[in-house]
Amino acid sequence: MLEILGKASSINVRKVLWTCAELGIAFEREDWGSGFQSTHTPGFTALNPNAMVPVIKDGDFVLWESNSIIRYLANQYDGQHLYPGQPRLRARVDQWLDWQATDLNGAWSYAFLSLVRHSPEHQDPAALASACERWTRNMQILDRQLQATGAYVSGEHFSLADIALGLSVNRWFETPLEHPEFPAVRAYYERLTERKGFVAHGRNGTP
């Protein structure tokens, strides 16, 4: 039985939960992270030296880093429909997975911590305005890509990239800032809502 260590409200844990739903993987989950068991204990940092969730244990195999985990699950549990083996198709999925983890995450971090987490260290008006502008600019990139594909971020078919980006789109809509009209992103959000895994672990009101 696959073990998932991490609280269900974590956006990165939810990537793993949604992937399990898409692949029909049975799992057991333990609450770790803020408000639950501390990830800074020696036992946890022996699994992940970064002291962050999620971590999975698949038998004697331990893995951390959410995008690496969902790639592994697709490879291990017959998920070629989510993560194709053909090099060019896989590269397109990887491109958007990596963009989500770097450019997009870097864009929304300050604004999310300021407007949702109400972090005292993230209340500088100029820094917040800059962060919102960067976030909006990245969402515009996503909107243009979705206009081009007319379906999912890497092309015609749903993939692992949509799991990572679908959760990021949920965070965009659930964060209280001005949302310019991006019709392709909105249509994409509604399209993802047709998937049970997204309803359970994505569009659940938890940004």
UniProtKB/TrEMBL annotation:
Which terms in the Gene Ontology molecular function aspect does this entry carry?
Answer: transferase activity
Q: Where does the record place the GST C-terminal domain? A: 86-207
One Pfam family, please name it: GST_N_2
Is Transferase among the key words of this record? yes
Q: Which residues form a coiled coil?
A: none
> Would I find Transport among this entry's keywords?
no
Keyword annotations from UniProtKB, A to Z: Transferase
List, alphabetically, the CDD domains matched.
Answer: GST_C_2, GST_N_2
Q: Where is the GST N-terminal domain?
A: 1-81
> From what superkingdom does this record's organism come?
Bacteria
- What protein family does this chain belong to? Belongs to the GST superfamily.
Identification of the protein by name:
Glutathione S-transferase
Its source organism is Pseudomonas brassicae
From which lineage does this chain's organism come? Bacteria, Pseudomonadati, Pseudomonadota, Gammaproteobacteria, Pseudomonadales
